[in-house]
Amino acid sequence: MTVVVSDRVLAPVYRRAAANCKMPSNKSVSDAPITQLVNCRILRDHRLQREDLWVREGKILDPEKLFFDEKAYADKQVDCHGGIVAPGFIDVQINGGYGVDFSRASDDVGAGVALVAQKVLEHGVTSFCPTLVTSPTDVYHKVGRCPLPPLEPSTLTFATTPFQVLPEVKVDDGGGHGAGVLGVHLEGPFISVEKKGAHPERFLRTFRSGDLADLTQVYGSLDNVAMVTLAPELEGSLSAVRELRRRGVTVSLGHSVANLSQAEEAVRHGASFITHLFNAMLPVGRALPPTSRPPALTSCHVVQFHHRDPGIVGLLTSDRIPEGRSVFYGMIADGIHTHPAALRIAHRAHPAGGGHRVKGHRCRASLTCVCRFGVGDGRHRRHGPSSGPPHAGPAGHPDPGSARLPGRHADAERQHRHHGHVCAPLQTRLRSADRQGGKEARRQGSRGKWSCVCVCVCVCAGCSVEEALEAASLHPAQLLGISHHKGTLDFGSHADVVLLDESLDVRATFIGGQEVWRKKPRKKTDL
Questions:
Q1: What is the rounded CA–CA span in Å between residue 62 and residue 8?
Q2: Which domains does the chain carry?
């Protein structure tokens, strides 16, 4: 009897042989060195697998072809010590960090982007979209004196040097100098006044007709733009959605009071994303009476959800999404901006994240860094830091001059103001997510990094590690239409990789197969 064994069955044997034996290599394909990541579990095909990862010239290799066709071996091995190897994290909404505000006037916009790009490597971010909030037209594309958002209501200052943002933010693949830039995310100014959030109201705009002239008048060139967030209830917005999609720009819905019908119509015209789901959206309702108002809420809070019209949130379960289309949604998974129960609502509406569905909804975890992210203790305004120790007002509330939005819980606000966004440690999986998840996020988090966001998604939403990691890598890549070379560890993809330990803390970051950051070991101190 003849037994036929396929090459795929024998592949693991050959991989081990290639790892342990330096076989002669004809280098018929390339003379470039080959790197092999060993002793790891890699995220591929939606599950963690005990395999090695082979890289050459910035691309992920198929080890079977490498062994059988080239008889090649690894020139360098990297021991991952049993860690998790996942696709590098992709963040489509970073407003700044480390004292840099992408929306603020600067003598050197590129230097600010470069600083953030270099710093986010330690959080496993390998690609990102610098995000501009609503700004004056001068900030987007004109040269000249640019009005800055005032530090005090009665003050208006101007940049003393010519300032442009969009022409200065260049698309970049990333490398040793920092994470790659995928293009700019323009959050505003075509958003709702009622849901403007931290956006300056005086710079908000409406569409005249929604055609290209409307867009270029505000933004100038769209060459370096990857995404635009707009409110679909604005007159002319549907024409703008079509125009943006025609030019390859991803359209997101957010900062909006749109009803569900308006949101569905925008999706039918090409919108495919929801900016920070649950935050700055839903119909405006009546104010809560003081007797029934939770302690964490102020008088400006309103009842925002209504079962008869769930607004943009209703897209999660809408049956009117065009066949073959997916709606992605981002969430600020820090245990502060979004309650753990809200994370579970979104996740359980689509537990698999819409992974293999023809029509589905996919979650994209969000860090949404602001300029205060990564800076030390001190008082920090929304547009950059100011020196001095933190101050507290009555009843432990932050000083009125500090950066804050009305109604935010005081303890959560203090941590957000000093450390960026936070989330819970992995061990809280064992506790009640309803009662403990949010508390632990606020009390113990204060780490403000992407790995913590993944942990918070696992804890609060109850999803698997694989799902959380894909929400930070695969889904944003699919959203931007770049999943054929980013967001996965498929053969031929870019070798943008993050190495994590069992607690999902980042140990090393690779871009194009090159190690660009590694966590330094703790120094031993004498007791």
A1: 11
A2: 11-87+492-518 (2.30.40.10), 89-480 (3.20.20.140)
